[in-house]
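Regression test case RT-17, inverse folding.

Input:
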């Protein structure tokens, strides 16, 4: 993996009431071998396990496998390697969302944008996988995109990358899924990311999450961190609509707060000082559209990049509509 550390065996732990982990044990003596086992994920009905294993080939690449547990007792049987595995490239960081019959993974297979890219494959009714599809240039770059995680509502995809505007090595990012693909990518910020490798973000529920990091202060190497996902305060976008030439305030302008999917969230009218404000959510992309009968329409894109209490300030300039000569 990108972090330089190998996953040797698969372990599991009990989640305590406060979200902390305890009772770490080896997951399965059937799946764990003297080879390197990597990531695992389960089908929505928990009867099929998908996992990766390094067969110690010349490139240390991981292949993708699945096994079956028809009686629910963890007796994983009929293990098989899946069709698009290859010793010539690696398949890693696999993830299935329980509300969606698709498998996400990262791979350096040929045909990508460079390094490791994120892919998705549909899970057919018989458990076989369709040919994988690259998530495209709105997500993948010439460097590495790793550790995909889709939230339970299928609204957001979280992943790690050492591209974009990182704080250090691998950072954790979030991107909203839209009808046309994916929206602008947001860095989860310094509350989570650091100058070290931060990766493998996952949500337990709406209030608890986990990620892995090799930042200083841990037990050594890469450690798992538990984070609380509750908001730490209200976030507000405050703005002023102005004349682009005179910089004078423009009252009675219509201001629409829109999500990246195009849905209008809220509409405001600017006051006598051209001001407006909206309460917003953390780690989101927004479009602010402004219109006034005497001016050309204008819009800006902005994002909320922290979970802490924050006020974001935006000035939006409008150009007067040219009068038509009669």
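Golden output:
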């Amino acid at each position: 993996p990108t972090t330089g550390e190998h996953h040797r065996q698969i372990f599991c732990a009990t989640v305590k009431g406060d979200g902390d982990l305890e009772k770490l044990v080896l997951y399965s003596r059937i799946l764990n071998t003297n080879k390197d086992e990597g990531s695992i994920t389960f089908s929505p009905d928990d009867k099929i396990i998908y996992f990766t294993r390094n067969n110690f080939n010349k490139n240390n690449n991981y292949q993708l496998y699945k096994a079956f547990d028809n009686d629910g007792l963890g007796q994983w049987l009929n293990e098989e390697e899946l069709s698009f595995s290859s010793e010539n490239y690696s398949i890693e960081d696999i993830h299935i969302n329980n509300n969606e019959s698709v498998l996400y993974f990262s791979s350096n297979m040929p045909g990508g944008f460079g390094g490791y890219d994120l892919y998705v494959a549909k899970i057919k009714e018989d458990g076989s996988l369709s040919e994988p599809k690259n998530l495209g240039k709105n997500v993948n770059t010439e460097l590495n995109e790793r550790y995909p995680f889709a939230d339970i509502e299928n609204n957001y995809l979280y992943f790690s990358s050492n591209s974009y505007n990182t704080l250090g090595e691998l950072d954790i990012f979030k991107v909203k899924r839209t009808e046309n693909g994916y929206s602008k990518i947001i860095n989860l910020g310094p509350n989570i990311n650091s100058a070290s490798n931060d990766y493998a973000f996952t949500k337990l529920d709406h209030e608890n999450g986990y990620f892995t990091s090799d930042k200083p202060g841990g037990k050594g190497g890469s450690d798992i961190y538990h984070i609380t996902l509750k908001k730490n305060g209200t976030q507000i976008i405050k703005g002023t609509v102005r004349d682009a030439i005179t910089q004078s305030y423009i009252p009675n302008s219509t201001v629409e707060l829109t999500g990246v999917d195009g849905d209008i969230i809220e509409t405001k009218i600017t006051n006598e000082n051209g001001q407006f404000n909206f309460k917003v959510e953390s780690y989101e992309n927004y479009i602010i559209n402004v219109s006034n009968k005497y001016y050309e329409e204008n819009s800006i894109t902005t994002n909320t990049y922290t979970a802490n209490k924050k006020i974001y300030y935006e000035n939006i300039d409008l150009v007067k509509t040219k009068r038509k000569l009669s």
